[in-house]
Amino acid sequence: MVCRAVAFFLAMNIALLGLPLAGKKTLFSLLTGRTIPPGRKAGDAIEGRAPVRDPRVDAIARIAQPQKIRYAETAFLLCPDVQDGEQDGAWLNPARRSDMLCLVIRAFGAAEGGAHEGGVDAERDRQRLETELLLADLALIERRLERMGREARGKTEAARATEERTLRKCAAAIEAGKWPETIGLSEPEKLAVKSLGLLTLKPVLRVYNVAERDLGTLAEGRLAVACRIEREIMELEDAEARKAFLKDLGLSASGLDRLNSAAYERLGLMSFYTMGPDEVRAWTIRQGATAPEAGGKIHSDIERGFIRVEVIKYDDLMAAGSEAAVRAMGKVQLRGKDYVMQDGDICCFRFNV
Questions:
Q1: Which 3-state string (H, E, C) describes the chain?
Q2: Do 222 and 340 fall into the same domain?
Q3: If pLDDT is split at 50, 70 and 90, which confidence band does 253 have?
Q4: Is 72 domain-assigned?
Q5: Could you say which of 72, 148, 156, 349 has the lowest number of CB atoms within 10 Å?
Q6: CATH number for 318
Q7: Domain edge (last residue) among 286, 302, 324
């Protein structure tokens, strides 16, 4: 039976930031399938959505044969070019509402496309980009501290003191050239300044847009994507052809898939699944989430009235070939409210409200 529909639900919001000519627009279009409107104003941000293509969803669906498949989905926000001296611009506000920043850094030569002033230097561009974001946050912090000095005491003294202390810690880190995200703020401190949306408190992915020949040359921990090659991969309709193409490049996954995987890891996220004749669906939760918390992603009633969860391990389902076979083998686990979810769990929740 052929699945009749494919749908998506939002897993995370990622802001794409970079200098001019870094390849942000190309990457955004590849990720979301959206083209850039010709009448777009220089300061406008554009949002697009991309499915988190999960081979485990496809494998579960081949067994369950549901009417519908639902993938997780990532929202990507294409932000205006980062320019020197624009730290106070409102154009950064959409990025401040994102879950994570993706800094797109040019690492391909002038032969593959025009370069901005000073030629191509990925390390210089990374430092310049990060400096602009640090300065933007410092300006925002200084404005907030100035307002706090003038405004009436609306908060409790303890809350006000926590916010001011945290802002000053962040400002000191920035002035020392450090990202506040790296200085180990406590959860109460993060909560105290959350409404500001400080860019430098967000998790960051640094994506280097490289030429094909440089795909395997970046140091460990740096994510390389060759946008020109990604376009060729997407034009291959056959999955086996894509796999062979990637193998020839020495890659196990496309750059776009690796970007999504890196984002999940950086944000501390993982997936669990629900399956049935109507639908196979991927759900995104934080690593370390309990079973009731996972159930709450589906509906708040499940978390509130949680009783038990039936868990089938993905590998057990693949080995058995059907849910009935897994049950016959006695490999369905019944877990309580203290169960910590594992990546790849296939769940059926029992609840009562």
A1: CCCCEEEEEEEEEEEEEECCCCCHHHHHHHHHCCCCCCCCCCCCCEEEEEECCCHHHHHHHHHHCCCEEEEEEEEEEECCCCCCCCCCCHHHHHHHCCCEEEEEEECCCHHHCCCCCCCCCHHHHHHHHHHHHHHHHHHHHHHHHHHHHHCCCCCCHHHHHHHHHHHHHHHHHHHCCCCHHHCCCCHHHHHHCHHHCCHHHCCEEEEEECCHHHCCCCCCCCEEECHHHHHHHHHCCCHHHHHHHHHHCCCCCCHHHHHHHHHHHHHCEEEEEEECCCEEEEEEEECCCEHHHHHHHHCHHHHHCEEEEEEECHHHHHHHCCHHHHHHCCCCEEECCCCECCCCCEEEEEECC
A2: no
A3: confident
A4: yes
A5: 156
A6: 3.10.20.30
A7: 286
Q: Check whether 27 has a pLDDT greater than 50.
A: yes
Q: Are residues 266 and 339 in the same domain?
A: no
pTM, two decimals, is: 0.85
**272 and 299 part of one domain:** no
* Ranges 2-11, 122-131, 213-222: which has the least confidence: 2-11
